[in-house]
């Protein structure tokens, strides 16, 4: 195939234009929110700490994720088309998977950062040194890149014989695999199993980190100390919960309740909502970030 046909949000011109303006508003909000966080962390020396360094990485990833899917969907609605070229689709699959995988790794590292800050405060400066933080971030980006390179190369080497209609508003690996000839992707299935195991490992690590954190926090005698500790952790916990719950629901929803409309809503929830909402979650009750933005 020279091109794929993406799932359209609407078939009437009025609804297509509504979709365009709605997505434009969401996209601009995500650009503004993440852009402000990146600028604040980069320009204010008071925010040059491990927590804000990883938050900077998270905002960069969120900007990339929403920029991979939303602009193409908006352009298609505006020009009344569903087409995406083969190479555009491959690029979209690569960038979206890479950014999502890296974001999950960064969120895992952020959980470790919160664990060290609360459970081992005296050793925080030593464990979370500048060099250690750069190494952790580099490992997260490199692992995401390598994982995605294998997946994308494997997915697009599989022969497709089920048409060229992608049941999604952007290209992603599960939708491309649906178009492949049956039983033609044992390698990709093996890679997906390995990725699922690694994802589950990260999930267990995050859960165990927070079990330890809450155990320590609940032992703090002063209410003010407990409140400060919780305020350090709750934004990250909210972001992780949103990321994992939307991703898990998208992957594990039963086929019996699947429909094009539901699939579309779910894909918006996990591909568009987190990058837009994350800056709000992090800045809502964060005095340091608010002061830096002012």
TrEMBL record:
One Pfam family recorded for the sequence: 7tm_4
Main location group: membrane
PROSITE patterns named in the record: G_PROTEIN_RECEP_F1_1 (PS00237), G_PROTEIN_RECEP_F1_2 (PS50262)
InterPro entries: GPCR_Rhodpsn, GPCR_Rhodpsn_7TM, Olfact_rcpt, Olfactory_GPCR
Superkingdom of the organism of origin: Eukaryota
Subcellular compartments: Cell membrane
Membrane-topology annotation of the record: Multi-pass membrane protein
Keywords: Cell membrane, G-protein coupled receptor, Membrane, Olfaction, Receptor, Sensory transduction, Transducer, Transmembrane, Transmembrane helix
Residues passing through the membrane, by range: 20-43, 90-112, 189-217, 229-249, 261-281
Boundaries of every G-protein coupled receptors family 1 profile domain copy: 33-282
Protein family: Belongs to the G-protein coupled receptor 1 family.
Protein name, per record: Olfactory receptor
Organism taxonomic ancestry: Eukaryota, Metazoa, Chordata, Craniata, Vertebrata
């Amino acid at each position: 195939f020279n091109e794929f046909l993406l799932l359209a949000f609407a078939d009437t011109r009025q609804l297509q234009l509504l979709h365009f303006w709605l997505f434009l508003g969401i996209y601009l909000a995500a650009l503004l929110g993440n852009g402000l966080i990146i600028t604040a962390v980069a320009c204010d020396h008071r925010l040059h700490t491990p927590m804000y360094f990883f938050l900077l990485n998270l905002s960069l990833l969120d900007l990339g994720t929403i920029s991979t899917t939303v602009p193409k969907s908006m352009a298609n609605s505006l020009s009344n088309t569903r087409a995406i070229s083969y190479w555009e689709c491959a690029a979209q699959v690569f960038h979206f998977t890479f950014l999502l995988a890296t974001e999950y790794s960064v969120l895992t590292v952020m959980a470790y950062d919160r664990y060290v800050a609360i459970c081992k405060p005296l050793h925080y400066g030593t464990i979370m040194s500048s060099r250690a933080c750069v190494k952790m971030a580099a490992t997260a980006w490199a692992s995401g890149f390598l994982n995605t390179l294998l997946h994308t190369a494997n997915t697009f080497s599989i022969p497709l014989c089920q048409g060229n209609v992608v049941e999604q508003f952007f290209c992603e690996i599960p939708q491309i695999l649906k178009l492949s000839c049956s039983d033609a992707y044992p390698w990709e299935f093996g890679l997906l199993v390995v990725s699922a195991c690694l994802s589950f490992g990260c999930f267990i690590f995050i859960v165990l980190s927070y079990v330890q954190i809450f155990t320590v926090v609940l032992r703090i005698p002063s209410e003010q100390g407990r409140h400060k500790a919780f305020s350090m952790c709750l934004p990250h916990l909210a972001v992780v919960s949103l990321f994992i719950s939307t991703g898990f629901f998208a992957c594990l929803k039963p086929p019996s309740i699947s429909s094009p409309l539901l699939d579309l809503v779910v894909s918006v929830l996990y591909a568009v909502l987190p990058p837009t909402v994350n800056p709000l979650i992090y800045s809502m009750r964060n005095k340091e970030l608010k002061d830096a933005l002012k």
